[in-house]
Amino acid sequence: MSKFREVRQENKAAAEQRARPSALQVAWLVVLVAFAGLLLWLTLAEPPTTTAIAETQPPVAQIDPAPADKPTATKQTAEAAQSPAQPPAQTAVQKGEDKPSDKAADKKAADAALQRPDAPASIVLTPAPIAELVDTTPNGPLPKITAGREPWQAYARPYTDTGAKPRIAIVISGLGLNKSLTDAAIQNLPPTVSFAFSPYAEQLTDRLAAARTAGHEALLMVPMEPHNYPKNDPGPHSLLTTLSAADNMKRLHWVLSRTTGYVGLLNDMGSRFTASEEAMTPVLQELKDRGILFMDARTSQYSVGAKLARNLRTPRAINNRYIDNTATEEDIAQRLQELESLAKAYGAAAGVGRLYPVTLRTVATWAEGLSARGFELVPLTAVANRQPVR
Question: Of the ranges 119-133, 198-212, 353-367, which one carries the lowest mean pLDDT score?
Fold first, then answer.
């Protein structure tokens, strides 16, 4: 009988053991429950909006970690801009206009970045062209000096020198190739910010006039040969070290004749060209003779542009910092702070930025508190010939 009880107890224990879940079974059950919960959360949760993403990080197109030898226009855009009198048929992309699919996005980004209730009122500069300062040539109008009156001063934004605060000039480059961002910059940045327009832009005269009507000084960008040319090509009218001085002069005159009302030129790329004293000397002499300022973009540490301009007595300005080689708010703010330090040390400083929404937004915010920090935001001509040449 006892033997029978022992067998029954063993069978009962085995049955209880089989009914009890193993550790592996419990683990699988936990995994299945967690997976079901994740699926339920993904189904009910709202996806992040495009606006939120745009506010937290700049578009990939804005990031430019490379040095300043970067083409403002694409090679296709440059090749499309042959003659201002008879341009060939072009697509929207070749013209440098907004792509149809990008227009809404560009406008939305520009409006979100810049629209402020305290946008500066328009300030009208001296109307352009001033007839006595225009040299009419078969290839188009060129600036000239008349009775000691020079175009870089005549077209400058009026400025009263108080000598009270260090001066900082900001130039935004590449205007004219993207209409929505160009308009946003013109309408929303402080009028003391200066603009450099691409010579390959369509409707260049109208857009430059709009900038001047809003109070902004204007420059033209002159494409120059970089070290890695022709892999990196600033366009068909680029000044090259391999060309004769006469051929480079023809290309320079093409740039100068694109419109009127500008105070000077800013080199676009040009790390190789600006390092050549032989190539740069006739260019800077021509600018001096025509009363035009040259801003050395300093795309190379070996640039002789500013030094030669000083020696030739060509009106000059120097780019002390590219403020958005890394196009994030933090890095741009850091470069702007460096400009403040330079202005405090030397009395004047200048920086160049590109037509990125993040650049426009950061510059606008920075400019609002600049005076309270003891600095003055001035047009580029207000720092001309004031920066030390090193």
Answer: 119-133
User: Would you say how long the chain is, in residues?
Assistant: 390
Find all residues with CB under 8 Å of 47, minimum gap 6, and list them. none
**Does residue 351 contact residue 319 with C-beta atoms inside 8 Å?**
yes
Distance CA 162, CA 190 (A): 19
| Separation CA 74–CA 358 (nearest Å) | 21
- According to the model, what pLDDT value does residue 69 have? 74
CA gap 92, 52 in Å, rounded? 29
Between 13 and 387, the more confident residue is 387
- Please, are residues 367 and 337 in contact by the beta-carbon 8 Å criterion? no
Q: Residue 232 and residue 221: Cα distance in Å, rounded?
A: 16
Is the separation of the CB atoms in 235 and 79 below 8 Å?
yes
User: Does residue 57 surpass a pLDDT of 70?
Assistant: no
In this structure, are residues 332 and 359 in contact, taking their beta carbons and an 8 Å threshold? yes
> Cα separation of 284 and 277, whole Å?
10
Q: Percent helix, strand, coil in the chain (nearest 5)?
A: 45, 15, 45
Q: Collapsing DSSP states into helix, strand and coil, what is residue 169?
A: strand
Per-residue DSSP letter, 150: -
143: closest CA among 81, 243, 219? 219
